[in-house]
Amino acid sequence: MDNTCQVYEDEIQSLEEEIKLLTEQYKDIQQESTFYSEKEILMAIKSFQGEFQGESKGYGSPSDLKAQLESLEADLSFLMKFTGIQFTRHSKKTVERTRNRTVQKHRLSGTCYSLSFQLEFQLLEMQDEEKVSSVITDLCIVMESGEDLNVSEFVSRTEEHGDLLTFFRSLSSYAEWYEHRRRTFLHFK
């Protein structure tokens, strides 16, 4: 009898935990949706419907859209071949949104030639009357660097300054030469 009660209690506890998790997810979704007024939502729906029906400005026929998509895919393929960087995963969560300020948490992972990397950062976007400015904060980089002290120092400096452009430029160059060294040492083994 005690064993049966324990099984039911375990099931009840499991269901309570699942309810708690679903409630938290629902609150996150509610928070995301409450940042927009009904008027903004209706405008977005109308805009989407107009684009879907081909009525939006600058798009034209489905064949034009297909050609534009193929062009963008070709550009992306070229950039991946040129830099060696391929993103394998990306997630974004809005942490805070007001009229003129948005904070989003991003997580990226990918490879550059044979080196893998993971990034986590917050993107703060502030909008004035004329322009939008973006600032990267809380940058955390995890990268395969083996025992290379120079890479560890570079990653630390990049995290302090929050300079993603420099990170990706340097990563591309370093990973390319790392791959050449790796192949060379394999050749001599």
Automatic annotation (TrEMBL):
Coiled coil region boundaries: 5-32
Pfam family, one: CENP-P
InterPro entries referenced in this protein's UniProt entry, alphabetically: CENP-P
GO cellular component term, pick one: nucleus
Keywords linked to the UniProt accession: Coiled coil
Top-rank lineage group of the source organism: Eukaryota
Protein's organism: Dryobates pubescens (Downy woodpecker)
Keyword Coiled coil listed: yes
GO biological process: CENP-A containing chromatin assembly
Protein name: Centromere protein P
